[in-house]
Amino acid sequence: MARITDTQGKPEAPEPGRLARALDSDIWYSFTRSPLAVVSALVVSLFVLAALFAPLIAPHNPFDPATISILDSFYPPVWEEGGDPRFLLGTDDQGRDVLSTILYGMRISLAVGFASVVFAMLIGITLGLLAGYLGGWVDSIVMRIADVQLTFPAILIALLINGVARAMAGPQSYDRVVFVVLVLSIGLSFWVQYGRTVRGSVLVEANKEYVLAARLIGLRPATIMFKHVLPNVLGPVLVIATINLALAIITEATLSFLGVGVPSTQPSLGTLIRIGNDFLFSGEWWITIFPGITLAILALSVNLLGDWLRDALNPKLR
Fold first, then answer.
1. Of 153, 161, 154, which is closest to residue 182 (Cα–Cα)?
2. Has residue 271 got a pLDDT over 90?
3. Which of 75, 148, 157, 299 could be cross-linked to 91 through a Cys-Cys bond (beta carbons 3.0 to 4.6 Å apart)?
4. Residues 6 or more apart in contact with residue 22 via CB below 8 angstroms
């Protein structure tokens, strides 16, 4: 098969693939020139991989009663006097390995964080598109609901939704639906930021020529909103999502610390901190300190990554 040639008879260079275009983009250049962003991305990736492969890399299974002995409780870290080489970071009050519980706990914290951010994005983007594009009474209703919700802290809204769900489900059924309840309560607390941001961007995009042209050729409003307008307003949404991921993880940890999160039999990082807090002043500091450090490093790394992404997507800073 003959190769395509230009007007001078020379073969044309093949178009670069998606990976080549990504590596040649301004965002990748900005990323490689920011050591803080690179380190943050590596830390977040390490934590995510450690959580995903926790069953393979964890020294023990903290959720298997057959492998847990109460006689192994309150072992200090291995470098402390009385430490056991089987438990590098010590054990908790139930004899569970602290390192293993952190790895498994990160799975729950990250899963709740990612799911709640996706849920909040779906609600916020949809309502923001409708409010900005349709305007009128739709815009007024959505924005008034957002204004009312902004008067309450996100944690109080999450506690309210969580309490209502607990009362409706009952104590017996709540543990089976606690993951879904946490995702709904945290997601419904964070959708306002996406909705207001998308609405403002849509108000700008709605008067541009490509939207007016799409209206003239008879495209449906849903097609214009989701196929043409939405791709042009995703930049700020991605920044908010990255920062909100850290907030969602911290909110889940706060709810679990307050005792309204996941049960202690399947602890997240917040539950581990709450369990260890009961023994902090009796000398067993490692039970709460190590999960707390893990949570702080994870949230800080995600926040730093979000700050870099905000600057990288800002055309005024390029």
1. 161
2. no
3. 75
4. 28
